[in-house]
């Protein structure tokens, strides 16, 4: 454990704190948030199926959890990569990615994004709210939960 002292674990390995640069501390680069879907207001059901376009932006901002596609960030890797490149160009150095088990955490994609953009990604660990826990997760022992998180 002494080799970890004073280091930061990123998805690509250990770095020194001096390598962090400007850091965003609570981001989601890839996730599925369908667990939080909320039915749209009566008479607006069709809008929850429309493509995400500027002409629907007002409705989407008012009903972010009622639009199914809006809850599927894991399908937007190209857009996320582009945003990370903008962040890096503006002086950003690191991101703490807080997507956890239960909302489609994908460490392989996080590694790929970090490699392709040069942004350090620090992956959070844990489990999201009870409604997202599978029966397998609920049956885990404390030791098994610890192993899964590490």
Automatic annotation (TrEMBL):
Belongs to the metallo-dependent hydrolases superfamily. Phosphotriesterase family. Keywords: Hydrolase, Metal-binding. It catalyses: N-acetyl-L-leucine + H2O = L-leucine + acetate; N-acetyl-L-valine + H2O = L-valine + acetate; N-acetyl-L-methionine + H2O = L-methionine + acetate; N-acetyl-L-isoleucine + H2O = L-isoleucine + acetate. This is N-acetyltaurine hydrolase. It comes from Notechis scutatus (mainland tiger snake). Its cofactor is a divalent metal cation. GO terms for molecular function: hydrolase activity; zinc ion binding. The keyword Zinc-finger does not apply. The gene is PTER. The keyword Hydrolase applies. Pfam families: PTE (PF02126).
């Amino acid at each position: 454990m002494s080799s970890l002292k004073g280091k930061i674990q990123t998805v690509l390995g250990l770095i020194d704190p001096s390598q962090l640069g400007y850091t965003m501390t609570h981001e989601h680069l890839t996730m599925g948030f369908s667990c939080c879907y909320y039915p749209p207001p009566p008479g607006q059901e069709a809008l929850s199926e429309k493509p995400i376009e500027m002409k629907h932006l007002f409705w989407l901002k008012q009903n972010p959890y009622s639009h199914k596609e809006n809850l599927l960030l894991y399908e937007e890797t190209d857009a996320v990569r582009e945003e990370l490149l903008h962040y890096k160009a503006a002086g950003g150095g690191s991101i703490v990615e807080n997507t956890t088990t239960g909302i489609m955490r994908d460490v392989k994609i996080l590694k790929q994004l970090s490699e392709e953009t040069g942004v350090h990604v620090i992956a959070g660990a844990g489990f999201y709210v009870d409604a997202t826990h599978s029966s397998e997760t609920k049956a885990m022992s404390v030791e098994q939960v610890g192993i899964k998180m590490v």
